[in-house]
Task: structure prediction
Amino acid sequence: MRNALISAVMLSSGVVLASSQVLADEGQWQPYQMPSIADKLSERGIAIPAEQLADLTQYPMNAVVGLGYCTASFVSPQGLVVTNHHCAYRAIQYNSKKQHNYIADGFLATSKIDEPTAGPNERLYITEDVSDVTEQVTKALSQDPLVRYEEIQSNRKSLIKSCESDDNYRCSVRSFHNGLEYYLIKQLIIRDVRLVYAPPESAGAFGGDIDNYEYPRHSADFTFLRAYVGKDGKPAQFSKDNVPYQPKSYLKINADGVKSGDGVFVAGYPGSTSRYRLTSELKFASDWLYPTLAERYQLRIDTIETMSAADKEVKIKYAGSLAGMANRMKKYNGLLDGFKATDITAIKQSREDGFKQWLATDKTYQSYQTQFDTLESLLAQKRIDSQTRYYFENAQSSALLAAANKLYRLAKEKAKPDAEREEGYQERDMKMFKARLKRIDSSFDITVDKTLWLQDLKAYKAQDNRVAALDAILLDNNKVSLSEKLDGLYSLTSLIEPEKRLAWMDADVNAFETSADPFIRLAVALYDTNMVQEKDKKTLAGQLSQARPDYMKAVIAYYKANNWPVYPDANGTLRISYGMVDGYQSRDALYKQPFTRLEGITAKHTGIEPFNAPQKLLDAIEAKQYGTHKVETVYQDPASWLCRLFSCLDKPESFGSVPVNFLSSVDTTGGNSGSPVFNGKGELVGLNFDSTYEAITKDWFFNPTITRAVHVDFRYILWMMDEVDHADNLLKELELVRN
Result:
């Protein structure tokens, strides 16, 4: 975040907040909100009717699907799905072995019969309906915090049970605006997902962690999957007799793509943002939470990299975990750099001060000052609790102990009526519960697991917030080192064996409490402490479920009074954001163009990971095998914010190559990975896969002058399929259109 212009713009919060143009592209909007911002969409050149975008049964929204952690979309009538390479990484890893390493070599199924399962945990979620259930969730709640929390959960579970008419649907009740609203979301589950086509990691993640959150980028971050169902057309578990799913619609792909200044929009499942959080919460994240998490992640990354360098099987097993940790690590560091470079805390505090002043003078909301003070007090307690519990929770990080904890909890919960069980332990959860237990083996190595756990136990031992039950088992004998004690646990447990691990799902409480298995014994010993801490969390959550909604009522009124956009923080539900293809001024005298070219890959290529592009890709670039994907010119739109500042000339810029990645001002965050990027007509032109380093702080505060999302240009995907990997069978499935 080395950016004088950014600092000048962001430090002057009055300038940022006063400009309706600056705020134009902000917002991760619920689909039903689209008609309310139809004028904004039109200003960006998005011609598809807002009412159509609001309708989840119509194109293109019914072609957008969730993966549970990323986004994807249907692109053929035969259930073909496209998402990011890093989103499908687990599927690629699951099918990689020493004899055929698809992570390193890539994979292409030339016929449907050659498409392997993506793994037991992979699912596609198709959102079919979203309905407001706020009244059903919040009506006549108790004033007692713990009882209130339990009542909310009971109401949610009742709504979910009514919604899930059969096993083919997964329903959830999500909180919006911090508990001010609740929506019931109904999703069709596709359980048979298969791997179809993935480029080598050296192309799909070209630049690796060095280029992560950076720009210019040259990443082929895409992978194709396919959805399968039973012969009756209904979702089913993996079977060789299953047939490709026929989606209600699939996306048309515009082979001519977009140019600078074009309006675009993105649909997907952004994970989490904190834009309505208080300044005190930002300070806690900046001063303690992010630095603490970053330090732990760095230690784990260093450990896994060292151990995987000596063992190829370990490298394959932990490839997904390592990539995820490296991504989070860089994000935390980016947030910390961003907070320093642009003083986001001061910006948040300025807006909060303005809110307090408005609150003191507005007759309707003056009484909400008390709720605001209560909220601050509760958040202070939450911060203390988080710090107190942090090391004890990490001290249970072993994959086998985590499994033992969940299995013992399951035995306890099964003694209750299903409706009274904790979420995650109801009958509806058992298939996924079993799949997670199975999947442990694909990303588990005893030596690595023990080493990582030992690090967390040493950190726990070095601080004062100790738990007697844990100390009694692991830290009670100074004659035996902690490392030797862990060796004993791993050597005596049966949880390493998949079948025996799964068998514990059917065991009763007595079987756990009389077991000699050391991990089971530890889980039993820690159960009461974990439950006490969970009860404390629920009580605080019950208190916050009263304080936060009241605060949000006043904040929303304040935003509306200032004509600022009002949309909920991201929470993993389907959203739409819009913007334009545009570069940005990243620092003094450095303007980053919106498109990158094939030749940038050659320029970056060193032959050493992560800049080791596949030879066949380099050969195609050297031969200038552009096919029909070459772009003669791109245009710098004279209406863009940068041109208005610096008086750009309205003339075409020579391009003469295949575009690889491009930038836009759409509002995205984690979970939007794999999201389809649409042109103004609703045609697919790219896949979202990253943000720029300067934009990382958008989780807390959106600054449109520098916030840019990074996308894979679909012209590059088509070029890879056509000229490099010769995926002719898949190209025939796609519906390509031209401008």
Notes: The first strand starts at residue 64 and ends at 66. The chain is about 45% helix and 15% strand. The radius of gyration is 26 Å.
